[in-house]
Amino acid sequence: MTLKISVKQVNYLPGDLEEHLQQFIHYYNHERYHESLDNVTPADVYYGRSEEILEQREMIKQNTMAMRKQMHYDKQLNQMS
After folding, report:
1. Could you tell me which residues come within 8 angstroms of residue 30 by beta carbon, excluding any fewer than 6 positions away?
2. Which of 29, 21, 24 is nearest to 45 (CA)?
3. Does residue 75 fall inside a structural domain?
4. How far apart are CA 74 and CA 55, in angstroms?
5. What span, in angstroms and rounded, lies between the C-alpha atoms of 12 and 48?
6. Domain that holds residue 39
7. Is the Cβ–Cβ distance between 12 and 20 less than 8 Å?
8. Residue 2 falls within a domain, yes or no?
C-alpha cells in the first residue's frame, strides 16, 4: 500500500492526518519487508541487523529442508515394512 492510497481511503480531521502519516511511516520503515532490500525492513538495514536476519533465515531454511528429507526417508521406510 502506498502513502497516497492510504491517505485517500479515509476522510481525516487535521490532527488525525498527522497521526496517520506517522503510523504509515513507522509501518513502512519498521514492519514492511522490502523486496529490494532482500525482504528486510529499512530499519533492519539502517541498524545493521540485515545480515544476521538473512543468516538466521538461511539456517531455518536448511533445517527445514533436512527435516523434510528425513521425514521423506522415514515414510519410505515405513512403506517398505
Report:
1. 41, 42, 43
2. 29
3. yes
4. 29
5. 36
6. 13-80
7. yes
8. no
Residue pointed to by grid coordinates 521406510: 77
Query: Distance (Å, rounded) from C-alpha 17 to C-alpha 7?
Result: 8
Residue in the structure block whose three cell numbers are 521423506: 72
In a domain, 38, yes or no: yes
Is the whole-model pTM more than 0.90? no
Q: What whole-number distance in Å separates Cα of residue 19 and Cα of residue 2?
A: 16
d(CA 76, CA 81): 9
Per-residue pLDDT tens over the stretch 22-68 = 888 999 999 999 999 999 999 999 999 999 999 999 999 999 999 99
Which band of pLDDT confidence, cut at 50, 70 and 90, is reported for residue 73? very high
Q: How many domains does the chain have?
A: 1
